[in-house]
């Protein structure tokens, strides 16, 4: 990532978007694949992997646990020496920063170890993120997990003695990652594990986990059986994918920003290698297309997206909530009120995303009605111009990468018609969490779009 200032003005597009975007690998898939590869009975190479703060935290934690993890960032590949379900190190102190996937996956992995003492902690905000559902479920399977601060939260001290298996209830309403973590380590238990969810779970990310577990099993046999809406069975088949490669998909959440860009500036882009796959967040692009904001076309290089009509819409984001900020940020440009529902659980993510989004849109003079689970956003273009006329309005990101990227796309709108920057992002470097070169990619798209436009103008005689 290029050196970024503490406050970054966004340069509006004065031409429609054109060109191709190469997306980073999926964070969700990369961190799941790192864990599954470590549990295999031999070496696995991950290709197309994401290199970011969250995945580096996961890779480094595995190294602290004694696994051989070799990274080749230039070629986007990671080599992992699987240990057949064993954890080599019997003592480790793991720092997970603010990485929720790493926190939950590593907690489950350490609890499933046959022996060892493991301490896990993160930054202060991580100590506020939900862990109780996973901790309670692992304890009911025999894990000795001690909360050394507030009960149900980080920091943790785990005195590993394996998991006994059997039926277990898990409350994963606050984060589906807790159920995913339990499912991935369940084959290490002494007996088959049969989880039952309490109050339901957001299914797409759990389905991703189950599909990946199947890919890491012999003959691709199903590892997770979904008995009904609430009940699962996990086989005790060991992970055996070794001596081969596993391909990571491009990040569908990252794709949401560049899918939204043509809505904001016109034109179209090709999102390279993005095709229907494991990720539920591809529903965001389908939603925009279904509403008429985008047209889409599957091509051999990837998914081509082009601007449609800026209609407003009402959408439940419960199953692809990481993308709700993308829609909310561009709502000031739509033709009427936009209502977003199903987002109460995002108040306990990197920051309170519902309150933060409401606060920043009010900063831009937009109408906002906030409830625990919803936002209704009414555009006010005149007030937007009035707030920005004397210089760029600075958007607070709260250290949350998704605020930075979502509002950067809004800032690409040519608000005053003269290419003058009118919006700026505070702490743009927070994008390193999942998309370290986001602003480099955005700058390249700007350059490609404007060079393409200038090449269409005939030379003057």
Give a description of the structure:
The chain has 461 residues and is an alpha/beta fold. It has two domains: 225 residues, Enolpyruvate transferase domain (UDP-n-acetylglucosamine1-carboxyvinyl-transferase, Chain); 208 residues, Enolpyruvate transferase domain (UDP-n-acetylglucosamine1-carboxyvinyl-transferase, Chain, Alpha-beta prism). It has a four-stranded mixed beta sheet. A four-stranded mixed beta sheet has the order 4-5-3-14. β16 and β17 form a beta hairpin. α7 packs parallel to α12.
Distance N to C terminus: 42 Å
**Structural Rg:** 23 Å
CATH architecture call of the largest domain: Alpha-beta prism
CATH class group of the largest domain: Alpha Beta
Average pLDDT metric: 95
General shape: globular
Measured by DSSP, the beta-strand proportion falls in 15-25%
Biggest sheet: strands, sense, closure? 4 strands, mixed
Instruction: Give the CATH superfamily of the largest domain.
Output: Enolpyruvate transferase domain
Number of strands: 23
Q: Give helix % range.
A: 25-40%
Low-confidence stretches: 456-461
Query: What's the total helix number?
Result: 13
* Oligomeric state of shown chains: single chain
């Amino acid at each position: 990532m290029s050196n970024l200032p503490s406050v970054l003005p966004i340069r509006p597009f004065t031409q429609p978007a054109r060109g191709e975007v190469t997306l980073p690998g999926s964070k969700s898939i990369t961190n799941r694949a790192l864990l599954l590869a470590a549990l295999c009975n031999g070496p696995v190479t991950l290709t197309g992997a994401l290199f970011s703060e969250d995945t580096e935290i996961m890779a480094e934690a595995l190294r602290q646990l004694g696994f051989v993890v070799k990274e080749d960032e230039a070629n986007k590949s990671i080599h992992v020496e699987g240990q057949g379900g064993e954890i080599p190190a019997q003592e480790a102190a793991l720092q997970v920063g603010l990485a929720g996937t790493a926190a939950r996956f590593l907690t489950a992995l350490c609890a499933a170890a046959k022996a060892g003492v493991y301490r896990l902690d993160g930054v202060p905000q991580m100590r506020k993120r939900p862990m109780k559902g996973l901790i309670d479920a692992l304890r009911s399977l025999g894990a000795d997990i001690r909360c050394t601060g507030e009960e149900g939260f980080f920091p943790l001290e785990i005195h590993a003695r394996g998991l006994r298996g059997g039926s277990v209830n898990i409350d994963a309403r606050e984060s589906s990652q807790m159920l995913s973590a339990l499912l991935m380590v369940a084959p290490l238990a002494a007996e088959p594990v049969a989880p039952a969810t309490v109050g339901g779970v957001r299914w797409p990310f759990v389905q991703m986990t189950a599909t990946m577990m199947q890919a890491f099993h012999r003959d691709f046999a199903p590892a997770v059986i979904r008995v009904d809406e609430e009940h699962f069975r996990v086989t005790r088949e060991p992970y055996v994918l070794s001596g081969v490669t596993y391909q990571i998909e491009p990040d569908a959440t990252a794709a949401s920003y560049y899918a939204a860009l043509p809505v904001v500036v016109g034109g179209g882009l090709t999102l390279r290698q993005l095709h229907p796959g494991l990720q539920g967040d591809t529903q965001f692009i389908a939603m925009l297309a279904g509403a008429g904001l985008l047209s889409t076309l599957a091509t051999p290089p990837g998914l081509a997206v082009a601007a449609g009509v800026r209609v407003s819409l009402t959408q439940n984001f419960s199953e692809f909530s990481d993308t709700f900020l993308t829609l909310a940020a561009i709502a000031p440009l739509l033709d009427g009120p936009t209502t977003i529902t199903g987002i109460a659980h995002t108040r306990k993510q990197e920051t309170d995303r519902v309150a933060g989004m409401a606060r920043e849109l009010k900063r831009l003079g937009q109408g906002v009605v906030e409830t625990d689970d919803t936002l209704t956003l009414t555009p006010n273009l005149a007030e937007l111009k009035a707030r920005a006329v004397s210089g760029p309005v600075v958007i607070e990101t709260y250290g949350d990468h998704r605020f930075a990227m979502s509002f950067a796309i809004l800032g690409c709108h040519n608000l005053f018609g003269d290419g003058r920057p009118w919006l700026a992002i505070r702490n743009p470097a927070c994008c390193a969490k999942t998309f370290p070169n986001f602003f480099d990619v955005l700058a390249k798209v700007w350059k490609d779009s404007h060079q393409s436009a200038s090449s269409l103008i005939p030379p003057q005689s």
